[in-house]
Amino acid sequence: MTRAVPLSRILILALYLILTACGGTPGAGDAASAPQTAIENKGSDTMVNLALAWAEAYQGQHAEVRLSVTGGGSGTGIAAMINGTVDIANASRAIKSEEREKAQANGIEPVEFVVARDAIAIIVNPANPVNQLSLPQLSAIYRGEITNWNQVGGEDRPIVLLSRETNSGTHVFFLENVVRLAEKDNKDLFSPDTLLMPSSEGIGAEVRQNPNAIGYDGLGYVTSDMKTLAVAEADGGPYVLPTIATVDDKSYPIARDLYMYTRGQPAGQVKAYMDWVLSPEAQKIVAQLGFVPVKQ
Questions:
Q1: Residue 282: CB partners within 8 Å, gap ≥ 6?
Q2: CATH number of the structural domain 118-255
Q3: 200-204: which pairs have CB atoms within 8 A and are 24 or more residues apart?
Q4: What is the pTM assigned to this prediction?
Q5: Please, are residues 255 and 120 in contact by the beta-carbon 8 Å criterion?
Q6: Residue 13 pLDDT more than 90?
Q7: Residues 104-140: pLDDT tens digits?
Q8: Whole-angstrom Cα distance, residue 146 to residue 196?
Q9: What pLDDT is stored for residue 6 in this prediction?
Q10: Which superfamily is assigned to 37-117+257-288 in CATH?
Q11: Residue 49 has pLDDT above 60, yes or no
């Protein structure tokens, strides 16, 4: 004799199947599926390792936030901020007036944060006997007027010029402050023989293998298998090596601020993250990676 199934059991089974189809029993996986706030952060290749280290440390403490960090250059990051596709743009140069105007035309008011400082180191191969150069000499080298190392106390070898690509904030800063010697009306350009490298690592790799090369990199990218030159503001010295101390006391002549830009005054999780970036905890990471912390 077949036994009838109680109606209450049928209803319970139906409810279970509906819940299973919708993703499981009540409460299962709630912690894993908790909503996260996504923060998009893009820009400067000089800053990308620092931004990644910040993101990793912050996400370890804030599971409710997902930080996406990519490079591409300061210009690329600022353009993405102008277009509204990122929350934070990293830049190794200040935003240009025309970029700010484009952002404002899109209804975005860029807000600037100085999040670290950096020295741009002049690097050569360790086999190069030259130890120091002045800013006027560097300008002449990168404009193509000095073309042989023997013109600046080195061996009779052609100088191979290395630079970052034009979308790089480091490229722009070097053009304005070294090639053009910070002269507002100066329109000089890099020598057409300059090799444009896609990354800071690319410049370092070429310097390591080419005894004739000269390049420039953020201090955080300088390694022990490169030679760093002392730089003087004027011919005759004093010549100063780039260090955290010489950036702080402003004796090294090629130093700059590093920036983050937000779309208007940050709020919510973006504000919480920016507050943390400027905290002593985050600024310790700045020093660990070879950059210069900002003083609170």
A1: 54, 57, 58, 276
A2: 3.40.190.10
A3: 200/45, 200/46, 200/164, 200/170, 203/123, 203/162, 203/163, 203/164, 204/123
A4: 0.80
A5: yes
A6: no
A7: 999 999 999 999 999 999 999 999 999 999 999 999 9
A8: 18
A9: 45
A10: Periplasmic binding protein-like II (3.40.190.10)
A11: yes
Do residues 287 and 244 make contact, with C-beta atoms less than 8 angstroms apart?
yes
| pLDDT surpasses 90 at 253 | yes
Per residue in 14-28, pLDDT tens?
433 333 344 443 443
Q: What tokens appear for 271 in the block?
A: 């504000």
Map out the domains of the chain as residue ranges: 37-117+257-288, 118-255
Q: How does residue 156 score in pLDDT terms, banded at 50, 70 and 90?
A: very high
> In 3D, which of 42, 124, 26, 29 has the Cα closest to residue 85?
42
Q: Tokens 């199947």: give the residue.
A: 17
Does residue 213 carry a pLDDT above 60? Answer: yes
Comparing C-alpha atoms, which of 278, 254, 279 is closest to residue 112?
Answer: 278
Q: Are 264 and 113 within 8 A, CB to CB?
A: no
Beta strands in 151-200 (DSSP E): 160-164, 195-197
Phi first, then psi, for residue 67 (nearest 5°) are -100, 125
Give the length of the chain.
Answer: 296
| Rounded alpha-carbon distances, angstroms, from residue 289 to 5, 34, 219 | 69, 33, 9
* C-beta of residue 33 within 8 angstroms of C-beta of residue 269: no
Q: Which of 239, 263, 261 is nearest to 252 (CA)?
A: 239
**Residues whose CB is less than 8 angstroms from the CB of residue 41 and which lie 6 or more positions away in sequence, other chains included:** 51, 55, 67, 68, 69, 70, 86, 87, 88, 89, 90
Q: Do domains 37-117+257-288 and 118-255 have the same CATH topology?
A: yes
Give me the residues paired with residue 231 across strands.
133, 240
What single string gives the DSSP state of each residue in 123-134? EE-TT----EEE
Q: What is the pLDDT of residues 216-233, one digit of tens each?
A: 999 888 999 999 999 999
